[in-house]
Amino acid sequence: MHDPAKRPFYLWVLIVLLALFGLNSTLRLAATLRAWEALDAFGTQPGPLYLAVNGGIFALAFLLAVTALLLRWRVAAWIVRGAVVVFALWYWVDRLALSPGRPAENIPFLACLTAFLLLFSLTAVWVWRE
To answer: What is the per-residue pLDDT across 49-79, written as a single tens digit (0 to 9) for each?
Structure first.
C-alpha cells in the first residue's frame, strides 16, 4: 500500500538539488558582499551589484522551493516550476548576453545538462501528487 506521508525518492533528489542550487546562490551573494571593493576596483562586468542581487534572488527562490516541498504546500509544484524555469532562462541570458568575457566552451554539454535538470525537475513535480 502507498503511504501518502512518505515522499518518493525522486522528490528527495529534487529537494537536495534545489538546496544545492540555493546554497550556490547564497555563496555567490556572500562572496560578492565580501569582495565588493575588489570586484568594483577591477571593473568586473556586469558589476558587484548585479552579482549580489542575482545571488540573493535565486537563494530566496530556491529556499522557498525547498521549504514548499518539505512543508507540502499546495503551490509547491508551481513554486518549483517557476524557480527552475526562471533560473534556467536567466542562466543562459547571463551566459550569452550579460557576461561577454566568458569562453564559449562546453556550450553543448551545458545545454544538455540544463535540459536534463529542467526535464527532471518539471517531471518530478508533475508526477508527484498529494
So the answer is: 999 999 999 999 999 999 999 999 999 999 9
Q: How far apart are CA 29 and CA 120, in angstroms?
A: 26
CA dist., res. 96 & res. 61, Å (int): 22
Kindly tell me the burial class for residue 21, based on how many C-beta atoms sit within 10 Å of its own C-beta (0-12, 13-18, 19 or more). Answer: buried
Beta carbons within 10 angstroms of residue 75's beta carbon: 10
The cell numbers describing 53, all together, are 542581487
Evaluate whether 51 touches 32 at the Cβ level (below 8 Å).
Answer: yes
The answer to which of 29-33, 54-58, 93-97, 99-103 has the lowest mean pLDDT is 99-103
Query: Residue 64: what residue type?
Result: L
Distance CA 95, CA 106 (A): 12
Chain centroid to Cα 108, Å, comes to 19
DSSP state, 100? T
Q: What is the pTM of this model?
A: 0.87
Instruction: Write out the three cell numbers for 74.
Output: 499546495
Closest CA to 85 of 77, 74, 96, 97: 77
